[in-house]
Design a protein that fits this description.
The complex is a heterodimer of chains A (153) and B (91). With 153 residues, chain A is an alpha+beta fold. Chain A is built from five helices and twelve strands. In chain A, the strands form three sheets. Chain A has a six-stranded antiparallel β-sheet. In chain A, strand 8 and strand 9 form a beta hairpin. Chain A is globular, with a radius of gyration of 14 Å. The N and C termini of chain A lie close together (9 Å). In chain B, strands 2-1-4-5 form a four-stranded mixed β-sheet, with helices on both faces. Chain B is globular. Chains A and B meet through strand 12 of A and helix 2 and strand 3 of B. Strand 12 of chain A pairs parallel with strand 3 of chain B, so a sheet runs across the interface.
């Protein structure tokens, strides 16, 4: 588990710094993705998360969900082009799960990418992801991540 | 008043409300002894204050004496923490 200014970046995930999201390769041609710890800190307390419906096609760089927090409303953008095959119902009933467990219970959608290996190759892992996010946080002048008690990294 | 009790909270934190109430009750019993402040991390000022105090987990309770930290509880206070805090305030 890498840590950057108290923000957690678990090993084994793929990261898109520009979209501030992570993806886990499930090994069956699909991935699940969600917001990073940095993204959930930036958003603050998430009130609603509305993923696009399963079966919808998504383009690279386009929204897979709309997230509303106390201080921000905006899209979660996909680094993949493909089809949403499943959404996480848990985020519909309790969106604060994105704050509490961004990498585990707080995944947002499962996607079957059109070009899985190509899209994953454009994402960052491990040290490269830490470097990418370090630059991102410097540019945005972000401080440290702060977690609720019981936060799951 | 030199003593200040601060509770650092965030709306996404499910236990924070209970901790604020717990600390408020202590404050109500000893109002003349210290000041009380809830620091909300959903706004910039609150975040700045939390970073200055190197807060990494919320809720966190900090008691300071003339600006110097003398007591810190990270997470939901256990009975022992509350007793220690009350003892400090009573002495």
């Amino acid at each position: 588990m890498a840590e950057l200014k108290s923000c957690l970046l678990p090993d084994g995930l793929y990261y898109s710094v520009e979209n501030n999201v992570w993806a886990r390769d499930l090994g069956d041609g699909t991935i699940i993705m969600g917001m990073t710890d940095i993204a959930q800190t930036l958003a603050g307390s998430v009130i609603h998360c509305k993923p696009k419906a399963a079966g919808k096609k998504v383009k690279k760089g386009k929204s897979i969900a709309t997230v509303e927090s106390g201080k921000w409303v905006g899209p979660v953008k996909s680094p993949f082009a493909g089809e949403i095959v499943e959404i996480n119902d848990a985020v519909l009933s309790d969106a604060t799960i994105l704050n509490k467990s961004p990498y585990k219970n707080g995944w947002i959608v499962k996607i079957k990418p059109d070009d899985l290996s190509g899209d994953l190759a454009e994402m960052l892992q491990a040290e490269a992801a830490v470097e990418g996010f370090a630059k991102y946080m410097d540019e945005k002048e972000l401080g440290e991540c702060i977690h609720c008690e019981g936060f799951e990294g | 008043m030199p003593l200040l009790l601060r509770v650092f909270t965030h709306p996404a934190c499910s236990n924070c409300g209970a901790v604020v109430r717990m600390m408020w009750e202590i404050y109500e019993e000893r109002k003349q002894m210290f000041d009380f402040k809830t620091v909300k991390l959903e706004n910039k000022e609150g975040l700045k204050e939390a970073h200055a105090e190197k807060i990494k987990t919320i809720p966190t309770v900090i008691l300071s004496d003339n600006g110097k930290e003398v007591f810190r509880i990270v997470g939901t206070p256990k009975k022992q923490h509350v007793l220690e805090l009350k003892n400090y305030l009573n002495n």
